[in-house]
Amino acid sequence: MRVRSLLTALCAVLASAGLLVVPLAAEAASAGTASVSAGCYRQAGDHWECVTPGAFCPAAAHGRNGTSQSGVSYRCVQDGSYWRWKPAGSSGGTTPKPTPKPTAKPTPKPSHQKCSQKYLPLPDPKCQPGTRNPAVTQKTIKSTICTPGYSRKVAPPASYAGALRLTQIAQYGYADRKPSHYKEDHLIPLSLGGSPKSAKNLWPQPVLAGKGRTPAAKDAVELTLWRAVCHGEVPLAKAQQAIAKNRRTAVRRLGL
Strand 82-87 to strand 182-186: parallel, antiparallel, or no bridges (unpaired)? Predict the structure, then answer.
């Protein structure tokens, strides 16, 4: 009797310290299983000692290993709606969730033609009307376009121009999709204060044979207008308007 009293007192001390877990009778009854007496639970890190086989295990022991008084290994696994101590390696436990498959990225749709080729060798004015660089004005030409190296300084990176060229080749519906057959051209050139990156000022100019139809022919017009603007012969705005409208007639329209 004295030994039993001492054991009862010991269990009371362990219960007050949160080291003794006794399953509720109501839970056992609702599960439709026979009540199993819980043993003395002692937590040692992630491991639990002195577990009672088949007994309910506390929430802190879910998925953890334990050892009975006889030294047999057990694991706290889910059994229906409850968690119990079962022999280690048993089939009980939660079903692992399948690894979700990565969502496939949709294939980008090709750009549809939205610019007309009927204006060639000029761009479609609805797609590229030409845009100006606001930093370049009549008052700032001496420190911008008339300064050597200005165009190279503000030119967009080749990667940017190359990517835009591919997009615009599709937008113009060119049958020939080879990038080297086109020059990404500024309608209002950088040397006359054109916008460096605007898609409304850049277009894929075909490298075509024939007088007045090649990029080189436009380069000669740009040089003539640049000299006239920097020498004070033509206002900047008029030069920009003339080349944006039609670079083939720009020099004549300005009387140069």
Answer: unpaired
User: Contact at 8 Å (CB) between 82 and 110?
Assistant: no
**Phi/psi at 65 (nearest 5 deg)?**
-95, 155
Q: What is the mean pLDDT of residues 185-203?
A: 97
Could you read off the pLDDT of 158-180 as tens digits, one per residue?
999 999 999 999 999 999 999 99
Q: How far apart are CA 50 and CA 114, in angstroms?
A: 78
H helix and E strand count, the chain: 7, 7
How far apart, in whole angstroms, are the C-alpha atoms of residue 44 and residue 245?
Answer: 85
Q: From CA 192, how far away is CA 46, in angstroms rounded?
A: 75
**Which residue shows structure tokens 């033609």?**
113
